[in-house]
Specification:
- The complex is a heterodimer of chains A (185) and B (421).
- Chain A contains 4 helices and 5 strands; from the N terminus they run E-E-H-E-H-E-E-H-H.
- Chain A is elongated, with a radius of gyration of 42 Å.
- Chain A has 185 residues and is an alpha/beta fold.
- Chain A has a 5-stranded mixed sheet.
- Chain B has 421 residues and is α+β, with helices and mostly antiparallel strands.
- Chain B has helices spanning 3-8, 46-51, 63-66, 73-76, 91-107, 130-147, 158-165, 202-215, 225-235, 242-251, 253-256, 278-286, 292-298, 320-329, 336-341, 365-375, 389-403, and strands spanning 10-15, 19-24, 32-35, 38-40, 57-59, 77-78, 118-124, 150-157, 170-176, 181-187, 189-190, 196-198, 238-239, 259-261, 268-270, 307-309, 312-315, 342-346, 362-363, 382-385, 419-420.
- In chain B, strands 9, 10, 11, 12, 16, 17, 18 and 20 form an 8-stranded mixed sheet that branches. Chain B has a 6-stranded mixed sheet with strand order 3-2-1-7-8-21, with helices on both faces.
- In chain B, a hairpin with a 3-residue loop joins strand 1 (10-15) and strand 2 (19-24).
- In chain B, helix 7 crosses helix 17 (389-403) and helix 8 (202-215) packs across helix 9.
- Chain B is globular.
- Classes of the chains: A alpha/beta (185), B alpha+beta (421).
């Protein structure tokens, strides 16, 4: 189902290029005197948005309608009963100029909400940027560096004496007290 | 205490027979060295009274400043480790050991505020009895009470140190010094029960050299030990085969003729037609069992006898080949082939060189040991001379202290670990 008309259709179809709206009148809806007229006017209003509009009536009420008036207005007519649905009068195709098309209220609301969201995002981005720069300055100011004692200083790595380099005893002796077996006299 | 602290403040001490080598790990390749001796001053002497109060015991490089030309000098100048062993009740020697310890530690006391004592590794002869370990720990404890310079200490054997310094975990180390020699199998641990001690060292080579000098007409000089030692070092040769070498030398005395000019004197020793005797000197050190030596024994040369020092029995006439075999055969059979693979020679008594022109008959110490082993059916052996023998014990101490965990406590069963103070 598609949205977009000021009054929502009971059914809507699209083939990707054109849209067709249907206004369905049910048997029980004929409770009031002008109800059929209101339904017909609603169906007419679909043509502001949709390319085709149909009035769907029970077959028993179709006789009430003057098909010539519907054709004149470009409105299509579909009748139905418990056995079948039949297109009695094809709807005329109405081409809408996208540029001049009057935006629907929903569209206007959507545009308005998107604008509000954009403003919010802009505000948040600017706020985040400000917080970031402030915090970094504060953290930088608070950071304390440990003083390097002159005696220790950044020492050059001293090479190990030759007798310590690649000495297999280092591995053997480092396990003293952590091994169970030993050969000692 | 952390491993990092221990590694920064590892200190090594080698109580050698002649020299005392010491220093912390920061010494790098070479430790400090002073003679292993102490001089007991004479409090009653006029010089002492004039020059003011002087310490009762002097150690280190200042000793010559205090020496007096007195007949009792030999009793005042004490060398505590002459044979690697200090008598249990030899108070003067133990006093020297303690004084040397304090001298060494104070010479390297670090200025850092974190310093709370060294991790001290000392090295003693392989034949040092248990009481020497106990006395040494006692000296360390007293030193720490007085100066606070020892956090923990341990004592290891010198052959073990040599093996560590030479990066060989499984081998036999033969340490041969002035008075005696020890054959020590090592396989990740020193195998103390397998140590074979020999009551023969460089001093015995000197004694035979003195007899040879007498035979060659230099009897008047034969009583000066330092002179005799120089002659031994300059004229003595190790024969590959003693009988063959003597035969060759007797047939061609000019080729083997040797002379030694004593530096700074008019004295020249010339063995002349008796130059074949040069081979006796080298042979005697490694194997004194040739029949030729019997005549010297009968004429008064002290025959190396079997003796007991402390808990250790020293064999007098055991040749070095037999000593190695006996030591190795005290070890588990499985281990024996690995022990024979590497023999490490350490100590001044192995510092023999073979002149290239006599290379067909005279050999070095390592080759002699290899020949002695081959006579006993042991082949495929690599015999190495310890490099920098004067330094290797101290180096082994440093490696030991650096690597052994600080929480490994001393065990009297293992003779290893740290004694904490």
């Amino acid at each position: 189902m598609l949205a977009g008309a000021e009054e929502k259709p009971d059914l809507g179809f699209t083939d990707g290029r054109t849209t067709t709206y249907l206004k369905i009148f049910e048997k029980d809806d004929l409770g009031e005197r002008n109800s059929l007229l209101q339904v017909a006017l609603s169906a007419m209003s679909y043509l502001q948005v949709a390319n085709r509009a149909y009035l769907v009536l029970p077959k028993v009420h179709a006789a009430i309608m003057d098909a010539a008036i519907l054709r004149e207005r470009g409105l299509g007519l579909i009748v139905y009963d418990s056995k079948e649905v039949e297109e009695v009068l094809p709807a005329s195709l109405f081409e809408h100029d996208a540029k001049n098309a009057k935006p629907s209220a929903d569209l206007e609301r959507l545009k308005s909400r998107i604008s509000a969201l954009e403003r919010t995002v802009e505000t948040l981005a600017s706020e985040l940027s400000r917080v970031k720069s402030t915090k970094l300055e504060q953290l930088e100011a608070r950071r304390t560096y440990p003083e390097v004692p002159a005696s220790i200083g950044p020492q050059k790595p001293q090479p190990l004496p030759s007798f310590l380099q690649d000495n297999p005893w280092l591995d053997i002796l480092s396990k003293r007290g952590r091994e169970s077996d030993q050969i000692a006299g | 205490m952390s491993e990092g602290y221990k590694q920064r403040y590892t200190f090594g001490m080698d109580f050698g027979t002649s020299d005392f080598k010491f220093g912390p790990i920061t010494c790098g390749e070479r430790p400090e060295l002073v003679e292993n001796r102490g001089y007991f001053t004479d409090k009653t002497s006029i010089i002492q009274q004039i020059s003011g109060p002087v310490k009762e015991l002097i150690v280190g490089k200042d000793i010559p400043l205090y020496l007096e030309a007195r007949e009792d000098l030999s009793t005042r100048l004490v060398y505590p480790m002459r044979n690697g062993i200090v008598g249990k009740d030899d108070e003067r020697s133990w006093a020297v050991v303690k004084e040397l310890t304090q001298f060494a530690l104070e010479a390297f006391r670090p200025p850092e505020s974190e310093f709370s004592g060294f991790y001290l590794v000392a090295s003693l002869s392989a034949v040092a009895p248990r009481y020497m370990y106990e006395k040494l720990f006692e000296a360390f404890r007293e030193t720490n009470s007085e100066f606070g310079s020892i956090r923990a200490a341990t004592v290891i054997s010198q052959p073990f140190s040599v093996a560590i310094a030479h990066k060989i975990p499984t081998c036999v180390v033969i340490e041969s010094g002035h008075g005696n020699s020890q054959t020590c199998p090592i396989s990740r641990y020193p195998i103390r029960d397998a140590v074979v001690a020999i009551n023969r060292g460089g001093g015995d080579g000197n004694a035979l050299t003195a007899e040879i000098l007498k035979d060659c007409g230099y009897g008047d000089l034969a009583h000066e030990e330092s002179f005799v030692r120089k002659v031994k070092e300059n004229l003595g040769l190790i024969p590959a085969d003693l009988d063959a070498a003597i035969q060759l030398a007797k047939n061609d005395p000019q080729r083997f003729r040797a002379t030694y000019q004593v530096p700074g004197t008019r004295i020249t020793v010339d063995l002349a037609e008796k130059s074949w005797m040069r081979f006796l000197i080298g042979e005697y050190v490694f194997d004194p069992n040739h029949e030729l030596f019997q005549s010297y024994f009968s004429r008064g040369l002290r025959k190396p006898g079997d003796v007991r020092f402390g808990d250790t029995f020293f064999r007098g006439m055991l040749d070095f080949g037999d000593a190695i075999v006996e030591a190795v055969e005290r070890c588990p059979t499985e281990l024996q082939p690995y022990l024979y693979r590497q023999i490490l020679l350490s100590g001044g008594n192995f510092a023999w060189t073979a002149p290239p022109e006599l290379g067909d008959v005279a050999i070095d110490a390592a080759s002699k040991i290899r020949f002695l082993l081959e006579e006993k059916g042991i082949t495929g052996t690599t015999v190495l001379m310890a490099q920098s023998p004067q330094l290797s014990v101290w180096r082994g101490c440093i490696v030991y202290g650096y690597a052994v965990p600080a929480d490994f406590s001393w065990s009297w069963e293992r003779f290893e670990g740290w004694m904490n103070f």
